[in-house]
Design a protein that fits this description.
The chain is of the alpha+beta class and about 575 residues long. It has helices spanning about 25-35, 60-100, 100-105, 130-140, 160-170, 200-210, 215-240, 250-265, 280-290, 295-300, 305-310, 315-335, 345-355, 370-400, 400-420, 435-445, 480, 500-505, 525-540, and strands at about 5-10, 15-20, 45-50, 145-150, 155-160, 245, 450-455, 460, 465-470, 475, 545, 570-575. The structure holds protoporphyrin IX containing FE.
């Protein structure tokens, strides 16, 4: 049965009368009547179109159509406008309802801004660190253990209470095993690295790779780290001869790139002689120039299966091609030339070929080429900027606190003296006051400012009736907690004594989380700390650092980088000792 239609408007509102075939004749008569009265112009009802399945070919209908065609077009335009208005109104209502999410659940929340939620300034005006600090201060003032905000329209729960943080990260880890980071294993294999992947895949990979970061294996790479550090200090000596005002973040990035390049890829990047080498270039692109806007990244995360189906990638094409090629070439070269080098790539290769780290060792499981490439890539990206940033801020703070710098230097010189003027793996195991300085820097300027977890199944928060539904996100605002005066009195003051054994024993360890916590804690923590200790100890032995006219105080954080890096570098006066 085909229905006909009379299209009319009432004032500005269009509507359509559907006509049953039985009533075609009546509709014809009605249309005819209307048209015969056309011209008096005063009617609120207007016939703007007319059709019936039966009359479509009749002469009479053709006449009507010819006469009314412009009017029908107007009608469709009005319809279109109306549909758009309807969609906008429905969207508006949906967002408004969504913003009642925390109110409906009786959770303290911060009023979101339509339609951006509570992170409008993220990446454009400021880094996530100061935003989370403001949110944290608000909830802290309200005296609540957790509080709700919105990332665009997605509800997000901040956890402030340290006991609850411990429960969620450690005891109830099985409910929150993932970060909810976007990856696309099929079209963008490098994005399927340990930081991003989830569930059993992550667990298996973490079990396979944890043995590569044991103390014994890091010890094997120690001479490589010391070798790069020697080159670094020699290079700084040459730079200082030209000018004693030096941008340290750039130089320290070259140091950590060379360390990770040699330890993870077995490649001499030589960033001191060739500052624009490809590792540096692609490392910077991977961090600084995200291929998508924050909104698209958010949508990709929120609708991951659709984004995966569309083949959307997390990484720039040229970054992926560069790192995949480097890993492929390295593997081919080592396998065909039987090269053995005590580095991470060697361990990854052993896992690829035998599934074991030692001939007589335990079976851990084989790795595919794609898995090796993705892990080498994350060791590089997660390892270089975090460590160089931590070292940069340590020098910045020591330049502003000469007394602390002298104390750190004395501690370093004692260690060198006790080891025949060198550094050994054992001697950097505990560097006393220098470690306190590094810890205080990681408190004040944690390179990773937040921790994120996604609920893998529904979870009821202890002692409450709040349920965090599967797929919802929680956030631990590390930066803000590190600046909470209840945990760290006078938080803006740089005071390495906060990390003396006595002071640490008095504090809840869960208020200080620069490397995260629980089974997903940073796998490179030990390695990152060692490269920072070796670098800083060698620098303090040979150079003195002070502020100069170009030093930006307080340091301004980058807005766009995931890592809490300095926006304009860190300029210091460097003096040879
Ligand atoms: C000062 C240096 C470093 C800092 C501050 C740092 C910080 C962090 C943080 C906060 C996390 C997230 C932990 C969590 O969610 O609980 C993390 C994860 C990770 N980091 Fe680091 N990191 C550093 C150095 C390194 C280095 C040198 C490497 C590799 C060689 C590395 C590799 C990783 C990896 C692979 C993960 C993901 C672990 C997983 O999900 O299982 N990091 N890091």
């Amino acid at each position: 049965m085909k229905l006909g239609a009379l299209c009319l408007t009432w004032g500005p509102f269009p509507y359509t009368l559907l006509i049953h075939p039985q009533h075609y004749e009546a509709a014809h008569a009605f249309a005819k009547l209307y048209l015969s009265r056309e011209g008096n112009g005063k009617r609120r009802n207007q016939l703007v179109g007319y059709s019936s399945a039966k009359s479509r070919s009749s002469v009479y209908h053709n006449q009507l159509r010819r006469k009314d065609e412009p009017a029908v077009r107007v009608m469709w335009l009005v319809y279109l406008v109306w549909i758009v208005v309807f969609i906008l109104l429905a969207g508006f209502r949906w967002v408004r309802r969504r913003f009642d999410f925390w109110k409906d659940r009786g959770v303290e929340y911060i009023e979101p801004e339509f339609p951006f939620g509570n992170f409008k300034t993220l990446g454009k005006v400021e880094h996530i660190a100061p935003i989370t600090q403001r949110h944290y201060d608000y909830f802290k003032q309200k005296g609540v253990p957790y509080g709700g905000v919105f990332m665009l329209t997605s509800p997000l729960l901040y956890i402030l209470d340290t006991k609850l943080i411990k429960t969620l990260l450690v005891k109830d880890f099985n409910y929150f095993p993932n970060r909810g980071v976007y990856f696309n294993e099929k079209d963008d294999p490098l994005s399927a690295h340990m930081f991003a992947i989830e569930g059993t895949k992550w667990k298996t990979l973490r079990n396979k790779l944890s043995p590569t970061f044991t103390s014994g294996r890091i010890k094997m790479t120690f001479p490589l780290v010391v070798g790069v550090c020697q080159q670094f200090c020699d290079h700084l000596g040459e730079v200082v001869q030209q000018s004693n005002e030096v941008e340290m973040h750039d130089l320290l990035s070259r140091y950590t790139i060379d360390v990770i390049g040699t330890c993870a890829f077995g490649i001499d990047c030589n960033s001191f002689r060739e500052p624009d080498n490809e590792f540096r270039k692609y490392g910077k692109i991977a961090f600084d120039k995200l291929p998508h806007s924050p909104l698209v990244v958010y949508l990709m995360k929120a609708f991951r299966s659709y984004a995966n189906a569309l083949g959307m990638k997390q990484l720039h094409e040229d970054v992926s091609s560069f790192f995949s090629k480097v890993v492929k070439d390295t593997i081919e070269y080592r396998e065909s030339n039987k090269v053995v080098r005590n580095d991470f790539m060697d361990l990854l290769l052993k896992l690829k070929n035998t599934g074991k780290l030692e001939e007589a060792g335990e079976e851990i499981g084989k790795l595919s080429f794609e898995e090796i490439a993705a892990q080498a890539f994350i060791f590089f990206t997660a390892g270089y900027d975090t460590s160089s940033t931590a070292m940069t801020y340590t020098l910045y703070e020591l330049a502003r606190n000469q007394e602390a710098q002298e104390k750190a230097r004395k501690c370093v010189l004692d260690i060198f003296a006790a080891n025949n003027g060198t550094l050994t793996y054992e001697s950097v195991g505990n560097m006393g006051y220098l470690d306190q300085c590094i810890n205080e820097t990681l408190r004040k300027h944690p390179p990773v400012a937040i921790l994120e977890r996604n609920a893998d199944r529904d979870y009821q928060l202890p002692d409450s009736d709040i349920v965090i539904k599967k797929g919802r996100k929680i956030m631990i605002p590390t930066f803000a907690m590190h600046h909470d005066a209840d945990h760290f009195p006078d938080p803006d003051r740089y005071d390495p004594d906060r990390f003396s054994a006595e002071q640490m024993a008095k504090r809840d360890p869960y208020c200080y989380l620069p490397f995260g916590e629980g089974p997903r804690i940073c796998i490179g923590m030990r390695f990152g700390t060692i490269q920072a200790r070796v670098g800083l100890a060698s620098l303090l032995k040979r150079f003195r650092f002070g502020v100069c006219d170009k030093t930006q105080i307080p340091v301004k954080y980058s807005k766009t980088n995931f890592i809490l890096g300095p926006a304009n570098g860190v300029w210091l006066r460097v003096e040879k000792l």
